[in-house]
Amino acid sequence: MEGEPVNVNEFQELARQALPKMHYDYYTGGAEDQYTLKENVEAFRRITFRPRMLVDVSRIDFSTTVLGYNISAPIMIAPSGLHKLAHPEGEIATARAAAVSNTIMVYKSRDVSAQLVQRAERNGYKAIVLTVDVPRLGRREADIKSKYPKHLIILLLAAIKAVEVGVAGIVVSNHGARQLDYTPATITVLEEVVHAVGGKVPVFLDGGVRRGTDVFKALALGAQAVLIGRPAIYGLAAKGEYGVRKVIQMLKDELELTMALSGCPSVKDITRSHVRTQHEKFHSML
Ligand SMILES: Cc1cc2nc3c(=O)[nH]c(=O)nc-3n(C[C@H](O)[C@H](O)[C@H](O)COP(=O)(O)O)c2cc1C
């Protein structure tokens, strides 16, 4: 590969060259057979576009608001810990890149302290703290069980219960396919979760986002923004702070082009009818 990397996959290759094999394998790997790891990426590829023509797209605005923060694009950085393995400045370099890119870094509650949030604010980047807590099942259990396939039941009940107990938002995530293998790809269950939550709180997605087209697809299926895990680590490992910024910028550029070619001047213009899922293709054949 000559010159500057032009997409996330090229950054992955540079990260592979830069990192000790053990570290690289740790970041890229998934659980057991790595079925879910592959599916997180492959499932995006099975979604196609229905572009609109004759829309004025001379100005594209992909800025958005997430939980009261204005950010430059619907892309945030997922918590992955252990940034130090990828780069000596690790966390700090990623945080600076987030600040410069006007992006949000998301943390898990068990990794953070009040100091971290204060530090984030002092350094000009925004930190959102997630609480990892699987709520107990709610009373709408029977309803949901009659409507949805088995693998979705826990997810939907957890989402509904989480809304009932007052969470600010929900991230549809399978931990980057690092925990239970053979859970479905996150993008394939997003829409059901969005319906179950019914607009009461914003829904976010992570897992397998590697292209601006993936960001567009997640937004079309109801996510308010996406989080990236490994892509930020690849950028960090390959080129430090600059690399993380470059990864975010490439995804923004790709999203901008996708919006222009799909006839969507702003994120609000991205709707369900702009994409076609495997499920719809199957039904149209019957
Ligand atoms: C090396 C690594 C470590 C991670 N550690 C955690 C963790 O400690 N807690 C957690 O909730 N998620 C963890 N994740 C999952 C990320 O928060 C995120 O869900 C995932 O990376 C998104 O998928 P992607 O890497 O395909 O973008 C980790 C991911 C990676 C790659």
From TrEMBL:
First-tier enzyme category under EC: oxidoreductase
GO terms under cellular component: peroxisome
Domain FMN hydroxy acid dehydrogenase: residue ranges: 1-280
Keyword list, A-Z: Oxidoreductase, Peroxisome
Requisite cofactors: FMN
PROSITE patterns: FMN_HYDROXY_ACID_DH_1, FMN_HYDROXY_ACID_DH_2
Cellular location(s): Peroxisome
InterPro entries for this protein: Aldolase_TIM, Alpha-hydoxy_acid_DH_FMN, FMN-dep_DH, FMN_HAD, FMN_hydac_DH_AS
Protein's UniProt keywords contain Oxidoreductase: yes
EC number assigned by the record: 1.1.3.15
Keyword Glycosyltransferase: no
Any one GO molecular-function label of the UniProt entry: FMN binding
Protein family: Belongs to the FMN-dependent alpha-hydroxy acid dehydrogenase family.
Protein name: (S)-2-hydroxy-acid oxidase
Source species: Castanea mollissima
